Amino acid sequence: MTTSRADGPYDLAVLGAGPAGLAAAVTAAAAGARVALVDAGPRVGGQYWRHRPGDTGAAHHGWAAFQRLRHGLAAHAGRLHHLPGHAVWHTGRTAGGFRTHTLHDGTEQVVESTAVVVATDAYDRQLPFPGWTLPGVFTAGGAQALLKGHGVVAGRRIAVAGTGPFLPAVAAGLAEAGARVVGVFEAGLPASFVRQPLTVAANPAKLAEGAGFLRTLLRHRVPYRTRTAVVAAHGEDEVTGVTVARVDARWRVVPGSERRLDCDTLAVGYGFTPQIEIPLQLGCATRRDIDGSLVATADARQRGSAPGVYLAGEVCGVGGAALSLTEGELAGLHAAQAVGAAVADPAVVRRLVRRRTAQRQFAAALHRAFPVRPGWLGWLRPETVVCRCEEVTVRTVTEAVTELGATDPRTVKLYARPGMGLCQGRVCGYATACLVAARSGREATAEELRGMAGRPIAQPLPLGILAAGDPGADPESGSGIVPDAGTDESSMPAR
Amino acid sequence: MVGAACAYHCTSAGLRVTVVERGAIGGATTAACEGNILLSDKEPGAELELALLSSRLWARTAQALGAERLEYQEKGGVMVAASPATADGLRKLTAVQRAAGIDAVDVSRDEVTGLEPNITPEVAAGAYYPQDCQVQPVLATARLLRHAREHGATVLPGTAVTGFVRDSRGAVTGVRTDSATAPLIPAGRVVNAAGTWGGELAGLAGVPLPILPRKGFILVTEPLPRVVRHKVYTAEYVANVASGDAGLQTSVVVEGTRAGTVLIGASRERVGFDRSVSLPVLRRLAAQAIGVFPFLAEVALLRSYLGFRPYCPDHLPVIGADPRAPGLLHACGHEGAGIGLSAATGHLIAQVITGAAPDLDLAPFRPERFEETTV
Predict the structure, then answer these.
(1) What is the CATH number of domain B212-311?
(2) A489–B296: do the CB atoms touch at under 8 Å?
(3) How far is the alpha carbon of B353 from chain A, nearest alpha carbon, in Å?
């Protein structure tokens, strides 16, 4: 076990180098704190500013803000250390603060800090439907990551489906990159959004961004259909087409509206699920947000309920990059102040808090405009796979409820294994919770979502790397039966 | 699991049963164990007699309900000794176990490798236990309760017992619950099968029962082909199971599951109901497992889980009627052997309630024994 540190523990470990983490790290370093910016990726920017070396930023939004943060990173290089390629698998508490365990280049690297800022972002929320496990079906975020990170267009004829303002963004990017986007199929009816005029008026930039994506789609003659969903994907070995159907306000298929559409790729996204493994490991309180996701609860200073833990970005409520930047800045200011760096300027804090309030209202309005409706459960067939890792079908989940008497998703998981595979429920956790709750005629509760979200090891970790940190491990042989300390091997005890 | 086994055997004996569960079915210690039905870790005595009876009853239950549905497997256990000294101790153990009725086969180093081709070459000798079995504990609990429901039982999950109902002579005649629909459940007998919380429940009836939590972690790997064929453990395991030490003890228990994952145990700590994850314990378990199966170093850990074994000072469960509270019976305190011992426990409880002669002498398991030894 080695410890990456400059000379002594850091004041602050910032976990995640997306907009929130980057803003927190640069702000805290500017205030005088010694900061480690820990991230699994090779470059800063996270999902939002995922880019290639030498990227000019032409295809990116808010690139100027990113450039400013990159300059800040360089300007404070003396006390702000970016640790790329460090995948965090566990953060624990020590006597003096926190120890963050990462996997780096096949070894364990430990970062010690007085406080932590968790800015671990979110991933696409998945809903199962017939055919969703076929090759050629991507998450909307996955399709965009391929494009931004590798310059790869996911397919030639692409359908984009799901719900939320992210869909036009992904479709516009794909169309600009030369793909034929056969349509954006939005299951919701975002017209309800304009019924919240005050919130919208307070965030003109966000609105203009959305309008820009729609103009791009128009220019490429990409149809944007609302109250329309991809309810099935077809193909033998890969996607060759999809079934598109009109849906009602509850997302039930309008009978007779189904039609086949040829495509080789489908990008689907139903909002986002925040990555809250680290806050849960640290014992932070969580709640169910407006969009149905389980998020970590942050106070006015971006503090989690566990002492010394700060939260910024999607981890405390999905709200997009602009809100993440504001929350990151606030978390950085308050965390720096708490570890003894500069005291935050009250005027700056007030300005940031006002901005955060407006941005959160905008995010809440979006969540209300693009809710996931329970009608998607009706798209499922008994043989539809819910958990792809363990190949658990809708039928098996239903039987766990009806035959074996399970009343909550954790029990279903224990009976039938959805969420027990490689992804540990990241993909199927939300859907399983909804499916089980719906079988009992209700919605999934925060406690049920929590039961599917706790992961003491945040990502798969080779046992050899875990074992290397055992003080009793024999570094010479690396094998051989390790005698049990304190036990007399040769005699069995009397009872 | 123990409560489900009691319901299963009692309904099978013609009794009318209501199962009251505070949380989800099989959601506590049952959901945090490996599902062992073991004879190999027992030494001659009352617990072994119970384990032998339970082993036979589990086989019968698996036949009645379908082994597949319980994921009941006669997988067999392999105990390995690292040093010649441990090997000597192991041979002494197997000799007394054979005398007590366990099928314990001494095997050479080469035979161990034949049973487990991926095991470390640094093994001195071993023992093979063909009777060691495994079930998927949560599934088995659900299946047993389903059978009980089909035979008239009522199952109330999410319902906590808040107190006991007593008649004018002090006899237990039912329980009070926090449920709005079933706040009072009258019963001729009440069986305390609250596992690690059995002492707490007994306290509600005013009878002390010294059941303490003994924390344990299990590591779960990514799914693999069949690389570990039996339940494999080191001879130190038996010593740790029987130890009363409050400090951390770890020993190696490695086994494959039907889902392909490999389970790695076992740690024992007496730290109360502390749910925090201890990395040093996880590291130790990983290091020890790699010691036995070197290939595991390259295998990914997917998750870990922890639970609390119900532990009595003398390592024996509490089974039978409590003379201090007529009408109350106990079926708890099985420590790490609850799944294995549940079948016999449920069967004996049914015998006591129906007035049949118990298949085993219940004196070693009597609930009031802890008070007798207190001076």
Answers:
(1) 3.30.9.10
(2) no
(3) 27
